[in-house]
Structures are given as structure tokens and as C-alpha cells.
UniProtKB/TrEMBL annotation:
Matching InterPro entries: GDP-Fuc_O-FucTrfase, POFUT1
Reaction catalyzed: L-seryl-[protein] + GDP-beta-L-fucose = 3-O-(alpha-L-fucosyl)-L-seryl-[protein] + GDP + H(+); L-threonyl-[protein] + GDP-beta-L-fucose = 3-O-(alpha-L-fucosyl)-L-threonyl-[protein] + GDP + H(+)
Listed GO MF terms: peptide-O-fucosyltransferase activity
Parts of the chain that traverse the membrane: none
Protein name: GDP-fucose protein O-fucosyltransferase 1
Protein source organism: Macrostomum lignano
Principal cellular location given in the protein's record: endoplasmic reticulum
Signal peptide coordinates: 1-19
Length: 378
């Protein structure tokens, strides 16, 4: 009788849908490392992990940092991205909704364990010690009652989903809460393709179109990402000389591949100098008859440098002149007709993945016209 029922089910439900929808239990975490670019890259690994464990992923807000000491800001995932589309790939629920609606019954206060790899000096995870750890969970009213060190459980490395299911079955562990993202940075190459499920929502795309109209940004538009603040430039200068052959830095795989088989990150590609920027912008602007150059940057857009070398008719705008935030910058770079990105930046890597998903080409500063790694491989 049972097998007949199962057979009927198989006939009416496509097997792939059945496999991906059959989840039990939840996975929740704090995206406590890095800023948007890093959090977004780790998100792909967490999505893959939730899928392997067949658990619904509780989608956290993005964490951003204002001035030092000013605390954190939380931006709900659904404000810019389409949760329905993500849910079609794997069951997800927004964190606020999970905490307000489901956790009182599923994960009541008093029963909450937090997972970390191993104990700190005081024998705990210290899951809420420091920024953003404490403020993040506090924003959802979550306290932890005990700590679970998964590094102590035989075989429970993050990659081994069988031992996770054996050690932490969902009937006894309805919710797995992680003090940080259970995923690597940079992302594993095999997880990058999951980005196609991380799509902007229609309201946000509409607001970007309005922004382009209001500022009269005529196509074709060239987007340029200049990642050049003092910390980043210093990190490139300090870390590059120590980089072993074949090793990458930050998200440099997007240009050179995960094992740097296409070359190695250099100062020219990590913090492109003025001559390199001018050469690359002018070459692309000329060949594509670019009418607008949009420079997204965390620091110096170098607009006067670029204007001097460009025809009068080209319009130059930047993060500063438009007053855009990080999401708008990522959105505009994604929608541009052509881009020059930064090989090391995880924000650039996000833009690259979004453009790949939309079938738009990407180029990189300092790569002499090359398109980086993986256009065919992903
Ligand atoms: N608004 C805006 N912010 C930017 C831009 N570039 C970088 N940022 C900010 O700086 C953060 C880090 O930049 P990434 O390019 O991701 O750098 P990363 O070195 O890969 O990551 P971190 O280790 O977080 O610095 C981003 O997540 C943004 O918050 C930009 O063009 N516009
Ligand atoms: C999200 O995606 C779904 C499925 O593609 C679509 O029907 C819906 O309109 C989208 N919603 C928003 C807010 O973008």
C-alpha cells in the first residue's frame, strides 16, 4: 500500500522538486565576517550547506558598519533581493519572520544552543561577545543557553553532511544556529553557480531605472569599480609580496582562477594605478561609444583625472556625485553595458556573478582587456 502511494506521489511530483523541497529543520547564522562582498560570497556556501543538510535556510539581513563605535545596521535581504526566487531553489525564510513567528514554538528561549567549531579560552563559543556578534543577535532578542562545539564531534567538518545528519538529526536538533557563517571565504568554486538564485527584486530594479533617468545616465554606460581606500591599498601592498606562488588573495580567483592558473594578482590588478585606469577606461569607452561612465568606489572616484582624458560628450558620475549606497552601486554596476572591475574585491566578484547570470560581459582593470576566469566554466 505504502509503495503504491509512493509511486503515485512520484508520478505527480517531479523528482527534482521533491528532492529539493523535502526539508526538515532550520539553519540560522550570523553573517559576522566582513562587509557586503564577503557576506554575499559566504552566503553561497551557507546556501549549499543548508541544501546538503536538507534544512530550511533562515536568511539573515546584511550587516553594515557605520563610523567606528557607531554600532551596526541591518538591511533585510528582501529589500533588494527576491526571496521568492531564492525559495524556489531551496526553502528559505526571512530571519525576522522566523524569530517572530516560528521560534516561539520551535526554538523557545531556554533551549537554544549555538554552534562554533571549538571553545575559546573560557570554554564557551563567546557567540555574543564583541561587535557585530552581540548586537546582531540582540536585534532579534536571541540569547544562547549552551554551546555546541562541532569540531569535537567525530567527523563533523562542515563538508561532511552525512555526519552532520547523524550527529545532529533534525528531530532532536530542529534548529542549528551558527555564530558565524558555516562557509568559506572566498567561496568554493562549485558553489559560485548558486548565485543565479540571488536575484534583485523588481522594486529595486525599478528604483535603479528611476535613478538612471533622474540623473540622465544615457546608455551605453561603462561601470568602473575603484576599490582604493587606504586599508585596501595597504593590504595589497603588504600581502602581495608575501603571497606564495599559486596562491590567491581575497576574491582574486575571479581573474586568475582558484589555483591562479591564469596568473597571479599584482599591484596593477589589486590597486590599479592612474595610468592603468586611464588606459583601460579610454580603450573601452572608445570601442563601445560609451556615453556615461559611472565610478563606484569606497574612496576616490578619480573623476577629474578621467574627465581630462575623455571626450567632452562623455558624462562622468560616481558614488559620491550620485549619493548611492553599496546596494545601488552593485545594482548600477550590474546593469551597466560594460564594466571594469577590481580583481581582488569581493564586491566586484558579486557584480561579476550577477552579470554572468544576466549574460553580460565583464572586464577587469589592469588585465589588458582579458575577461578573467570562468566565463565558460560556471
Ligand atoms: N558604496 C560602495 N561601497 C563599497 C564599494 N567598494 C567597496 N565598498 C565597501 O567596502 C566593502 C568591502 O569591499 P570589498 O570590495 O567587498 O572588499 P573585500 O576586501 O573583498 O572585503 P572586506 O574584507 O570586507 O573589506 C564592501 O562590502 C562595501 O561595503 C563601492 O564601490 N561602493
Ligand atoms: C520574484 O520572483 C518571482 C518569480 O520569478 C516573481 O513572480 C515575482 O514577481 C518577483 N517578486 C519581486 C518582488 O521581484
Amino acid at each position: 500500500m505504502l509503495s503504491l502511494f509512493a509511486l503515485v506521489l512520484l508520478l505527480v511530483v517531479p523528482s527534482s522538486a521533491l528532492a529539493s523541497r523535502s526539508v526538515s529543520g532550520y539553519l540560522i547564522y550570523c553573517p559576522c565576517m566582513g562587509r557586503f562582498g564577503n557576506q554575499a560570497e559566504q552566503f553561497l556556501g551557507v546556501l549549499a550547506f543548508a541544501r546538503q543538510l536538507r534544512r530550511t535556510l533562515v536568511v539573515p539581513p546584511w550587516i553594515s558598519y557605520g563610523r567606528p563605535g557607531a554600532g551596526i545596521d541591518l538591511t533585510p535581504f528582501g529589500r533588494h533581493f527576491n526571496l521568492t526566487k531564492l525559495d524556489a531553489a531551496h526553502p528559505v525564510i526571512d530571519m525576522r519572520q522566523f524569530v517572530d513567528k516560528l521560534s516561539p514554538a520551535l526554538w523557545p528561549a531556554g533551549s537554544r544552543a549555538v554552534f562554533c567549531h571549538s571553545a575559546r579560552e573560557d570554554g564557551t563559543c563567546q557567540a555574543k561577545v564583541g561587535n557585530p556578534f552581540g548586537p546582531f543577535w540582540d536585534a532579534f532578542g536571541v540569547n544562547f543557553d549552551r554551546d555546541e562545539f562541532y569540531g569535537n564531534t567525530a567527523g563533523s567538518s562542515l563538508g561532511d553532511s552525512e555526519s552532520w545528519q547523524r550527529n545532529y538529526p533534525s528531530n532532536r536538533w530542529p534548529v542549528l544556529a551558527f555564530m558565524g557563517a558555516p562557509a568559506s571565504f572566498p567561496a568554493q568554486p562549485k558553489h559560485l553557480g548558486l548565485h543565479r538564485h540571488v536575484a534583485f527584486n523588481e522594486e529595486f530594479l525599478e528604483s535603479l531605472n528611476l535613478l538612471m533617468e533622474a540623473n540622465d545616465l544615457q546608455r551605453p554606460i561603462l561601470g568602473v569599480h575603484l576599490r582604493n581606500n587606504v586599508d585596501f591599498s595597504r593590504a595589497c601592498g603588504t600581502l602581495l609580496p608575501q603571497l606564495p606562488a599559486g596562491a590567491g588573495l581575497f576574491s582574486s580567483y575571479q581573474c586568475f582562477g582558484p589555483s591562479s592558473h591564469l596568473g597571479q594578482l599584482s599591484m596593477k590588478t589589486c590597486v590599479p594605478d592612474d595610468a592603468t585606469i586611464l588606459e583601460d577606461v579610454n580603450r573601452l569607452a572608445k570601442s563601445l561609444n560609451i556615453r556615461t561612465v559611472f565610478v563606484a568606489t569606497d574612496f576616490d572616484a578619480k573623476l577629474s583625472l578621467m574627465k581630462k582624458a575623455a571626450p567632452e560628450a562623455v558624462k562622468f558620475v560616481s558614488t559620491q556625485t550620485l549619493g548611492t549606497d553599496v546596494f545601488q552601486d552593485v545594482g548600477l554596476l550590474t546593469l551597466a553595458d560594460a564594466v571594469l572591475l577590481n580583481c581582488a574585491s569581493s564586491l566586484s566578484a558579486f557584480v561579476r556573478r550577477s552579470r554572468d547570470a544576466a549574460g553580460r560581459p565583464s572586464n577587469y582593470l589592469g588585465l589588458a582587456g582579458a575577461t578573467g576566469w570562468g566565463h565558460d566554466e560556471l
